[in-house]
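Lab notebook, design round three. We kept the backbone fixed and only want residue identities now. Task for the bench partner: fill in a sequence for the structure below.
Input structure tokens:
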């Protein structure tokens, strides 16, 4: 997954793919995903990243951003601060193949979730499933 890219670019620009306009009778979720693909990735808020990641859109560019946000906010959660469970849920519930293709990023996420203390049992189950699906020592390479 690319770590060094222009965060001022949209997913459309990074992927060099412009989606056609969604049908008029489409859901608000689909319209929102289409709109978010046109915004600079560096300007996306955590809940917007969660929406796109949860739909498996732009993963090569968005997962590294999301993992860095989670990593940077995890110590504050351990001290009793706020933590974005929606973003965490979106990230840890990606298919195991995603993490197999990005072992260093998986390792960063593994280290991040290790410091989280006050997580709902539902998200904890998803974290445990993510950890169980990681390849042995391959995630640290």
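Proposed sequence:
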């Amino acid at each position: 997954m690319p770590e060094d890219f222009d965060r001022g670019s949209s997913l459309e620009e990074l992927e060099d793919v412009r989606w056609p306009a969604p049908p008029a009778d489409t859901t608000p979720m689909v319209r929102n995903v289409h709109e978010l693909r046109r915004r600079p990735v560096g300007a996306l808020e955590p809940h917007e990243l969660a929406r796109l990641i949860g739909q498996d859109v732009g993963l090569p560019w968005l997962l590294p951003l999301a993992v860095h946000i989670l990593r940077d906010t995890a110590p504050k959660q351990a001290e009793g601060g706020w933590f974005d469970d929606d973003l965490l849920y979106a990230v840890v519930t990606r298919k195991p193949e995603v993490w197999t293709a990005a072992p260093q990023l998986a390792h960063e996420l593994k280290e991040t979730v290790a410091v989280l203390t006050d997580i709902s049992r539902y998200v904890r189950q998803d974290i445990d499933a993510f950890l169980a699906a990681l390849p042995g020592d391959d995630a640290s390479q």
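Keep this in mind before ordering anything: Helices lie at 11-15, 28-37, 46-54, 59-78, 85-92, 96-100, 103-114, 121-133.
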